[in-house]
Amino acid sequence: MADIEDITENDCCGNGCANCVLDVQVKTKKICDKTGKTNILLQYTPFRLFQNKPHSTYNDNVWEFHFKSVCAESVETPNEAVSNYILDMNPGYHLMLRAPQRQQQENEENFENYVEFKMKRYLLRPYSPYWWDLQKMEFKILVNLKCNGPMSDILRNLQIDNEMEFRGPIGKFEYTADNKGDNILMIINQGVAVAPALPIIKCIIQNEEDLTRIVHLSCFENVENIYFRQEIYDFQKFWNYKAHIYLAHEVCEECAKSSSLCSPDCKNFKRKLKYKESIHPVRLDENELEKIINTLKNELPHMQVVLAGTRKFQQYFKNMLSGELFGIKDNNIYLL
Ligand SMILES: Cc1cc2nc3c(=O)[nH]c(=O)nc-3n(C[C@H](O)[C@H](O)[C@H](O)COP(=O)(O)OP(=O)(O)OC[C@H]3O[C@@H](n4cnc5c(N)ncnc54)[C@H](O)[C@@H]3O)c2cc1C
Question: pTM surpassing 0.85?
């Protein structure tokens, strides 16, 4: 394996990530755990597509991608690879995926375009794993394949065994387990950005000594597009986890006839809910958030908030939460 590369401006994807690779300290420590193994992700490393499938039968644009490290599968040096490396990821962090840009002719007539192409030879986009296996060096991402999006087009056409390069982990979310039971972690996410929330939640509820209470608010379009609905439902078995789901565009056939959204009393909407599933056919706004926060009023000084979604979504909730009404300190609000 090559030495760890320095991070330069070419490593920035230009998407305006809250935790840009240039601003946060990517873990560059080579020996990353007590066993003395090296994190395979520290430089761009090839991963092979092992499996991909639509996340649900309702939406053909949201896919799960399962990648395996080529190094872990190496036929020539399997023992060396498996014994020297691990895949060390942090809950709430993301990976950078890079793919070569479309080839251009060396004798490109427009020299300026060619120079720009040479500078940006790779297309870069961040993705947040929702599952990984440290030893087997595998991970899974959930991707909303955008129409005419350059990386979406590449991922849409990816075949089993094709290779893609990933690097990371990138992020800033620092979390300490709470063994006194004082702390509350509120997670607010939107659409596929529920993915980085899952490992954070698992990390807390699977640690019996961590008494942090989680309040998880997820925003989706409608019931059919609630991603990881079963996982969210199953987490509720844990005493310290409570989920609320908000749907901004829930419309049943009946309500569609009168061009209206389903109300909380709509029978067709209610029929879609499982036992004790807290799903609201409304947009999560200041009023809805206030209802939740009112139940936690005395605990606000011990509350940390994680926001995952588009830049606009994160800023909307950050401004609201740090404003006069809720007064949560800026340094208790983390943008993933
Ligand atoms: C920290 C972080 C983590 C992320 N994690 C995930 C994840 O786990 N899963 C996931 O699905 N996504 C994730 N994303 C988003 C992801 O990185 C990509 O932005 C997304 O997959 C789309 O990439 P793309 O290249 O296909 O399209 P993009 O080029 O990013 O464009 C997206 C859409 O906008 C349109 N568009 C682009 N430019 C313009 C323009 N100038 N005017 C009008 N429309 C335009 C495109 O046609 C396309 O439909 C994450 C983003 C961040 C910042």
Answer: yes
Task: Report the nearest atom of ligand 1 relative to the CA of 17.
Answer: 53
Pocket mutation for ligand 1, best pick of 61, 90, 125 (most atoms within 8 Å of C-beta): 125
Measured from the Cβ of residue 157, the count of other Cβ atoms closer than 10 Å reads 8
Instruction: Give the E-state strand segments of 90-234 in sequence order.
Output: 94-100, 122-127, 131-133, 138-144, 163-170, 184-190, 213-220
Enumerate residues 6+ apart whose C-beta is below 8 A from 142: 55, 62, 63, 64, 65, 130, 192, 194, 195, 227, 228
Question: Which residue stretches of the chain are H helix?
Answer: 70-73, 78-84, 111-119, 150-156, 197-205, 229-235, 253-257, 267-271, 286-294, 311-322
Ligand 1 within 6 A of CB of 17: yes
Q: How confident is the model at residue 130 (pLDDT cuts 50, 70, 90)?
A: very high
pLDDT at 115: 53
Angle CA 165–168–174, to nearest 5: 160
Instruction: Summarize pLDDT for 30-51 with one digit per residue, the tens.
Output: 556 667 888 999 999 999 999 9
pLDDT at 234 exceeding the cut of 60: yes
pLDDT at position 9, please?
Answer: 75
Task: Pick the more confident residue, 3 or 65.
Answer: 65
CA 67 to centroid of ligand 1, rounded, Å: 20
Top mutation candidate among 127, 140, 164 for ligand 1, by most atoms within 8 Å of CB: 127
Whole-angstrom Cα distance, residue 97 to residue 50?
Answer: 16
Atom 29 of ligand 1, residue of closest alpha carbon: 149
- pLDDT reported for residue 107: 53
Q: What number does the ligand 1 atom closest to the CA of 196 have? A: 8
Distance, CA 335 to ligand 1 centroid (Å)? 17
